[in-house]
Design brief:
Layout lengths: L3 E5 L3 H13 L3 E5 L2 H11 L3 E5 L7 H11 L5 E5 L4 H10 L3 E4 L4 H15 L14 H14 L5 E4 L6 H11 L7 E5 L5 H9 E2 L11 E2 L1 H4 L3 E6 L9 H10 L1 E2 L8 E2 L2 E7 L3 H6 L5 H7 L2 E4 L8 H17 L6 E2 L1 H9 L5 H15 L4 E2 L6 H8 L9 H19 L4 H8 L3 H11 L4
Parallel strand pairs: 1-2, 1-3, 3-4, 4-5, 6-13, 6-14, 7-10, 10-13, 15-16
Antiparallel strand pairs: 8-9, 11-12
Helix pairs in contact: 2-3, 6-7, 10-12, 13-15, 17-18, 18-19
This protein binds adenosine-5'-triphosphate (ATP) and magnesium ion (MG).
Magnesium ion binds next to helix 7.
Length: 439
């Protein structure tokens, strides 16, 4: 099936060319010549990606973006900017645009970004069998998943970035009686502050500027299923009382609604921040934390369960070789040793990315250290300190250093830095924002 792309652009000639380029590359395209018309097409046609110009009349690209965040938050939006409007584009990125492209539009780059946007939006189907690792720690986690899935109590999942918090949350859903109900994820760190309330609780048409239609919030969408509040530590403090009320009472009141709606949900939440420290600094409410963490699950860092590394590496090698339609590669013993000696600040996600690249670049039968990134081969000679249990601080610092180093090595080109780190551009931007890293 052809992917549906909506282009909103007021320059007729450019619009025609872009439509032609995308159609020639196998996309189904609809166009609009200003924001108002664009919003109309968006509502009726359900595109998978939206590309919009910024400066248009009477309704500009910024309004289109705000409309999208409120009404179709999962749909990636790409901004086209003319020379001189980069600052507005940066604001657009903060509100949640997927990416921006400067004019004149480089067609190849546009096609690449659209491809990335479509991939970023694809959800991986995963189940309990996909949870790899037979270390004592992982076996205990699997047992706990089954136990915690058997109740409706809230579960709080804590652990460094990339340790598997989300895959565990999905596994709890799949192992529970709610498995045929929805699994709804809200990333509290990725949604702009002013939109979170509507994202969680929904709104009524006309309840504020931009609310052009009723919207069901995540609580109602997750009815009879599981609501996963990801990056809960980033939830603004002023919204925490309303969330506490919803969690306690299992009823919610959408913005602008006059009466509450009951919901039947199991709530899972996760963060890589240290909420206890945040509570002591009055950045997170203790009452909400205790409500959410009836049961706590701590995900160990990969460096603390090194026996899982080879198992995961072999699993990912097989997965990617099948995906790349290659015969399944072996991994040299020495390369396994190198992987086991590395400190994995990005945990399982980092290992997965490293193996993906190795599987792609390896043109022999066996993956060797030549196929591993320099940083991993180097660190084997100068390993990082292993005692990083107090990850609240250490993890953040390591992540910041890694981001900074990658950006500096790539002359602050975000695309290249993201490639180097093996993460998507949107993931990179989100991390830069989180740590306040600017050039
Ligand atoms: N035990 C595991 N077996 C197989 N794959 C795993 C395992 N744990 C994590 N992964 C994979 O590693 C990647 C990162 O996991 P996940 O997104 O669950 O981490 P996270 O803790 O939520 O990270 P973040 O804090 O950055 O959001 C995912 O692609 C996931 O499928
Ligand atoms: Mg996560």
């Amino acid at each position: 099936m052809k992917h549906k792309i909506l282009i909103i652009e007021d320059e007729t000639r450019l619009l025609r060319i872009l439509k032609m380029v995308l159609t020639d590359n196998g996309y189904q395209v609809k166009t609009a010549q200003d924001g108002q018309q664009g919003i109309g097409v968006w509502t009726q046609w359900n595109p998978e990606v939206v590309v919009t110009d910024l400066k248009m009349r009477p309704v500009d690209g910024m309004e289109v973006l705000k409309f999208g965040r409120l009404n179709f938050p999962d749909i990636p939006l790409i901004i086209l900017t003319a020379f001189g409007s980069i600052e507005t584009a940066v604001i657009a990125m903060k509100i949640g645009a997927f990416d921006f492209l400067s004019k004149p539009v480089d067609h190849k780059q546009l096609l690449e970004i659209i491809e990335q946007a479509l991939v970023a939006n694809k959800k991986e189907p995963e189940s309990l069998e996909d949870l790899i690792g037979s270390s004592v720690e992982m076996e205990q986690i699997k047992k706990n998943i089954l136990l915690f899935a058997s109740t409706d109590s809230s579960v709080f999942i804590n652990g460094e970035s990339g340790t598997g918090k989300e895959i565990v949350a999905r596994s709890i859903h799949k192992a529970s009686e709610r498995k045929n109900g929805p699994f709804v994820k809200v990333n509290c760190a990725a949604i702009p502050r002013e939109l979170i309330e509507s994202e969680l609780f929904g709104h009524k048409k006309g309840s504020f500027t931009g609310a052009i239609q009723d919207r069901k919030g995540a609580f109602i969408q997750a009815d009879k299923g599981v609501l996963f509040l990801d990056e809960i530590g980033d939830l603004p403090i002023e919204l925490q009382p309303k969330l506490l009320h919803a969690v306690e009472e299992k009823t919610i009141t959408p913005i602008g609604a006059s009466s509450p709606t009951p919901v039947s949900i199991k709530i899972l939440s996760a963060t890589n921040l240290n909420l206890e420290v945040m509570i002591s600094e009055s950045k997170f409410r203790a009452d909400l934390f205790y409500r959410l963490s009836t049961i706590c699950l701590n995900m160990p860092a990969l460096r603390d369960k090194p026996t899982d590394i080879s198992e995961l590496a072999l699993f990912f090698t097989k997965k990617f070789c099948l995906e790349f339609k290659k015969p399944v590669l072996k991994i040299a013993d020495k390369a396994i040793q190198t992987l086991e000696n590395y400190s994995w600040p990005g945990n399982i996600r980092e290992l997965k990315n490293v193996i993906e690249r190795a599987a792609l670049t390896c043109n022999k039968e066996t993956i060797t250290h030549d196929n591993l990134p320099e940083i991993i081969n180097k660190e084997t000679i100068h390993p990082l300190p292993q005692n990083t249990k107090d990850h609240g601080f250490d993890m953040a610092t390591q992540e910041q250093n890694l981001l900074q180093a990658a950006l500096e090595q790539c002359g602050w080109n975000q695309s290249n830095a993201a490639k180097k780190l093996g993460i998507t551009r949107s993931a990179l931007r989100y991390r830069l924002q989180k740590h306040g890293i600017k050039k």
